[in-house]
Every structure is written in C-alpha cells, then in structure tokens.
UniProtKB/TrEMBL annotation:
InterPro entries: Amino_acid_transport_2 (IPR018227), Trp_tyr_transpt (IPR013059). The lineage of its organism: Bacteria, Candidatus Buchananiibacteriota. One of its GO terms (cellular component) is plasma membrane. It is a multi-pass membrane protein. Gene3D superfamilies: Amino acid/polyamine transporter I (1.20.1740.10). The keyword Transmembrane helix applies. One of its GO terms (molecular function) is aromatic amino acid transmembrane transporter activity. It comes from Candidatus Buchananbacteria bacterium RIFCSPHIGHO2_01_FULL_39_14. This is Amino acid transporter transmembrane domain-containing protein. GO terms for biological process: amino acid transmembrane transport. The chain crosses the membrane at residues 5-26, 32-58, 79-105, 117-135, 142-159, 179-196, 208-235, 255-278, 290-309, 315-336, 356-376. It is found in: Cell inner membrane. The keyword Transmembrane helix applies. Keywords: Amino-acid transport, Cell inner membrane, Cell membrane, Membrane, Transmembrane, Transmembrane helix, Transport. Pfam families: Trp_Tyr_perm.
Length: 377
C-alpha cells in the first residue's frame, strides 16, 4: 500500500498548490454562492477529465504527457497545439509558485537573515530546480511527508481561526465579479499533467489508478472549502491575494509565521511535481536532452518573473481558464480517438457517451472565450 499512498500524496499534493491562496480573495470579490457553484460544476468536470486522462494513459503502451498523446491519437498539428497550451499552463503554474512561494520564504527568512525578496525568490526557484533534476522518486517521497505536515498546519490554522470567524464576512453574491473565480478555481483543481507521474509511482499496482484519481481529486476540493471558510470568515473584506497577510492583524504574527511555513510547504511540493512534468514534456515528447529539458522547464519561469510578470491572480486565472481549458478540450478529443484505436485494453473504463463529451467540450470553450474577452475588455 506504500505505493498507493505515495501516489495519492503526489496527486493531491500537486493539485493543492498555489491556487489555494487565491481562492479566498476571489470568494470575497464574487461571493460565496458563485464560488460554491463553480466548485460543484468544475469539480465534477475536472474529476471526469482526470478519469478520462487516466484511461487514455492506460490505453497507450508507453507513458507520455498530453502532447505525446495528442500526437499519437490526433496528429502532429494537435500535438503542437497541445505543447503550446500545456507549456503555457505549466509555465504559468510554476511562475505563480515562484511569486507566492518565494514571498512566503522571504516573509519567514527576512526577519532572521535579512536580505531582499528577490534573493529568496531565487533561492526558492533554484532549490526546486535541483530536486527536479533528481527525478520523480525523490519528489514522490517528499510529497507524502509534506502532505502530512500540510494537513497538520491547516488544522492548526483552522482551530486558531474559529474564535475570530464572523459569518457576516461571507458575501453572498456580486454580479460584477461573477466570472472572476472561474479561472482561479479551474487552475486550483487541475491535475491532468501529473497523472503520468502517478502511473509511474504506482508501478505494478496500476489497477489502483482510478481510485487514486477519484480520492485525490476530492481531497483538494474539501481542503479548499475549509480554507476559504477559515480565511474569509476571519479577514472578510480585508482578504489579500495571498490569503495569509490579511490574517496577521487578527490572529497575530506567530500564527502567521505558521501560515507562511504552511504556504511555503504547499507551493514548493507542487512546484517540484509541475517542474518535473514540464521537464518530461521536453525530454520525452519533444526529444530534448535531459539537461536542456531541465534548463527550459526550470529557468523560463524565473526569467518571466524577473521580466515583470508578477500579477498572481491574473496569471492563475489565465492559466486556468485558457491553458488548462484548452488542455481539457484536447484531452476529451484524445479520449474519443483512443476508445477506437487505443494500443491496449485499459484497467478501467468510464464509457462516457459522445453527446455528453461534446457538451463538456463546449463548456470549456465558453470558459476560454470569456477569459480572453475579460482580458481584452
């Protein structure tokens, strides 16, 4: 069962990433009713897309990432489109991890060692790059133990927050920001990119993949709702984009130090797994050398940050609605093809009817269009 828990921790630990810290902010801006609706709708759609992707991987003899599957089942052009969307989404994710995770490290270390925020962001990114170079076994073990610590700290923060929670802090509905949570919530739930890693971690216990996907998707949803309840209930309209800074005046500096450690732990473990996935896209699917793939995967987000791309909410909103939305569309198109021309019989099947799949694709297309229009307008 060790492999099962490592796989579950890797999957849930990767999903529970930097998106967690943007959720209270968009809840305050849009209201609790739209956020709960998005969690219900997108949680279901993402769970289905995860199961679909898992089935695709099981219908294929050799492990690939999304661009590899797109090339096999949909052709070279779809493969190139998938490389672009997958890379934008994953680079956006790791850029967001650097922004928030690096700031958490700085908040912890500056009072002790001095220096500046940029130095700690660089330390955060380079430390992750070193572990990404080492590979998946190191990361799987770190995810397992980090997730245990993560839930311990989350429970501590929730318990300490309860006396300060005010139910009047929860705004019900704000039509002006109705679409704002869409991309952030979609980003916070996405775990398609790491499913090939889960297959590798499970090894001979591949039949457990379906269970890992279902449980590993539901755990983050429950975690997010608990976190939103605690943070918004305490800080209300004062909720910040990183969720934690707004708690400082109410809960005190000692609790916030635990919160910053919590944030550092959460972002860093996901940063590792996403970076590893990026590396393998360039290594396995695009035939770059291992070293070049590692350099591209780890250092482009760092360069983007120092070029001035540092608006956390906009980055994860775009990465979620557009990049992950396109990835989901491609995934369902691959699924339709893989059911007909798959290379092996999968360990599980979900047997979705084609009309239902087309409806899901249409919903994701709407999400992409609305996000692009919101950026333009």
């Amino acid at each position: 069962m060790k492999q099962y828990f490592y796989a579950l921790a890797t999957f849930s630990g990767t999903i529970i990433g930097v998106g967690l810290f943007g959720l209270p902010f968009v809840t305050v801006k849009a209201g609790i009713i739209p956020v709960l609706f998005y969690f219900f709708l997108l949680g279901g759609l993402i769970l289905i897309s995860h199961l679909v992707y898992g089935e695709i991987s099981l219908r294929t003899k050799k492990p690939h990432r999304l661009p590899g599957y797109a090339k096999i089942y949909l052709g070279k052009k779809a493969g190139y489109l998938s490389v672009i969307s997958n890379a934008i989404g994953l680079f956006g994710a790791n850029l967001a991890y650097i922004i928030i995770g690096g700031s958490f490290l700085a908040n912890l270390a500056l009072p002790l060692f001095g220096g500046n925020v940029f130095a700690y962001i660089l330390i955060y990114a380079l430390s992750g790059a070193f572990l990404i170079y080492l590979g998946s076994k190191t990361i799987a073990r770190s995810e397992f133990f980090s997730l245990i610590i993560f839930f311990g700290i989350l429970l501590f923060i929730v318990i300490k927050s309860r006396p300060s929670i005010n139910l009047n802090s929860y705004y019900l509905f704000n039509a002006k920001n109705l679409f704002l949570p869409y991309g952030v919530i979609l980003f916070s739930l996405g775990g398609i990119s790491v499913i090939p890693e889960i297959r590798e971690v499970l090894g001979e216990r591949i039949k457990l993949l379906k269970n890992v996907i279902i449980v590993g998707t539901l755990i983050p949803i429950l975690t997010y709702l608990i976190f939103i309840y605690a943070v918004v209930g305490v800080s209300g309209a004062q909720t910040t984009t990183d969720a934690l800074t707004g708690l400082k005046e109410i809960l005190g500096p000692n609790i916030i130090l635990a919160g910053y450690f919590f944030g550092l732990l959460t972002t860093f473990t996901s940063y590792l797994t996403i970076g590893l996935t990026l590396k393998k896209i360039f290594w396995y699917d695009l035939n770059f050398s291992h070293f070049n793939a590692w350099v591209i995967a780890c250092f482009i987000p760092i360069i983007l940050y120092f070029l001035g791309l540092n608006d956390f909410i906009k980055i994860i909103g775009f990465a979620g609605a557009v990049a992950l939305g396109v990835d989901a569309i491609i995934t369902f198109l691959i699924y339709l093809a893989a059911k007909k021309i798959g290379e092996r019989y999968p360990e599980y099947q979900i047997n979705l009817p084609k009309p239902f799949i087309l409806i899901i694709i249409f919903l994701f297309i709407l999400g992409v269009v609305f996000e692009l229009l919101s950026l333009i307008l």
